[in-house]
Design goal:
This protein has 374 residues and is an alpha+beta fold. The chain folds into two domains: 191 residues, Gcn5-related N-acetyltransferase (GNAT) (Aminopeptidase), CATH 3.40.630.30; 176 residues, Aminopeptidase. Helix content is 36%, strand content 25%. The protein contains eleven helices and 15 strands. Strands 1, 2, 3, 4, 5, 6, 7 and 15 form an eight-stranded mixed sheet that branches. Strands 9-10-11-12-13-8-14 form a seven-stranded mixed sheet, with helices on both faces. α9 links the parallel β12 and β13. α2 packs antiparallel against α8. The chain is globular and about 60 Å long.
Length: 374
């Protein structure tokens, strides 16, 4: 057990060598936390206070959500002259003109203590009322070590509500890119490395697209429709992906890793870079030629490109684990695929809610529980 725990600690040191895994040392006194909502043209920079920030707390991600028609609000909390908390919240619609609020992998904090949490709760309470929200869901990053402090001010979310397209997964699979490329390949699971080499031997060609991503939108969406039908999940409207591709062309913070066979594109992966991490955000593939393992070559090429562009880590995204397999049913195959590239698990905190409407919150949870059973 100690070996496993030490492994997790070492993985987190690799992942955020300059960041803090636990709470920062707290000063003996701290000024009252003052919150301010940021305007459209103001800089939202949670990386300035903590290196452990996920792309869901980036300005770009907020723009993606706006393109889907969702309301996005951004706040900074300041104590004295120091920024202590940043958070970006997304407002999602419910029935009866009600909403719920989610702060994906946030708030991002530094120097947090119980008084800070109390101030934050008061601010969230006010925002929840403004947005007519049934609840606001928080996803503290990094995790708050003193969980008892959270329980005093927020309600731990029911596990049955975790599995949703809106909420970020509780465990992700990361790969350290500090190692030489040949070591990364060597440390892959044998059958993963074999699959990469098989694709190359069979004539699959990989390519990185950094510019004019929008030119490939039609092909990407067509492959995504095929993938969604095969794997049983729903897609956003095409306009959503168009906004993302257009923005990537403008901001130059993403690329496509594609695999071709006989001149035909059979795999397209969208990789977004933020905070020194290459994030595997979208993946699409044809049902043809799957025996040639093109998905493995596309991923390996994306890993190589992320490393070349200076990323310290590669994030494959959510996985099912032994402890959360009941929550993330149907993720087993994709999780197995991601693990073949080597790497380590990164666990996120439990969700915590501020409840704005107790009765509707009960109904929301009850409905989610029924869906999990049936």
């Amino acid at each position: 057990m100690l070996g496993w725990r030490n492994g997790i600690r070492e993985g987190l040191k690799i992942l955020w060598p300059q960041g803090r895994v636990g709470p920062s040392p707290t000063p003996s006194t701290m000024n009252e936390l003052v919150f301010r909502e940021l305007g459209e043209d103001e800089n939202f920079d949670p990386l300035s206070i903590n290196k452990r920030v996920y792309f869901t707390q980036s300005e770009t991600y907020g723009k993606w959500q706006k393109s889907a028609g969702r309301k996005v609000r951004r706040f900074v909390g300041t104590a004295g002259n120091d920024n202590v908390i940043f958070f970006q919240m997304i407002v999602f619609p419910l029935t009866q003109k009600k909403n719920y609020i989610y702060i994906p992998y946030g708030p991002v904090w530094n120097n947090i203590q119980e008084k800070t949490i109390s101030n934050l709760r008061d601010k969230i309470k006010k925002i929840t009322k403004e947005e007519k929200a049934v609840f606001a869901r928080l996803d503290f990053t990094p995790q708050v070590a003193e969980e008892k402090n959270l329980k005093k001010y927020f309600k731990r979310s029911r596990k049955s509500t975790y599995h949703s397209a809106a909420f970020q997964p509780r465990t992700e699979w990361f790969l350290d890119l500090h190692k030489p490329e040949e070591n990364i390949l060597k440390e892959m699971k044998g059958n993963g490395r074999y699959s990469v080499n098989l694709a190359i031997r069979k004539g699959v060609k990989a390519e990185i697209i950094r510019d004019n991503l929008s030119h490939y939108l039609d092909t990407f969406y067509s492959l995504s429709e095929e993938t969604a039908k095969r794997d049983g999940f729903k897609l956003h409207d095409k306009s959503y992906y168009k906004s993302i591709f257009d923005l990537a062309d403008k901001e130059k913070n993403a690329f496509l890793s594609i695999a071709k066979y006989d001149g035909k594109i059979v795999v397209m992966d969208f990789i977004f870079m933020f905070g020194g991490i290459g994030n595997y955000v979208f993946g699409s593939s044809s049902s043809e030629f799957r025996n040639l393992m093109p998905t493995y070559l596309a991923q390996w090429t994306a890993i190589q490109e992320s490393r070349k562009l200076g990323c310290q880590n590669y994030n494959f995204g959510g996985i099912a684990t032994e402890k959360n397999k009941k929550i993330y049913k149907g993720w087993e195959g994709l999780s197995f695929f991601k693990r073949k590239f080597g790497g380590f698990e990164v666990d996120h905190s439990d969700f915590y809610d501020f409840v704005g409407d107790g009765f509707l919150y009960f109904l929301y949870n009850f409905r989610k529980s029924l869906k999990q059973i049936f």
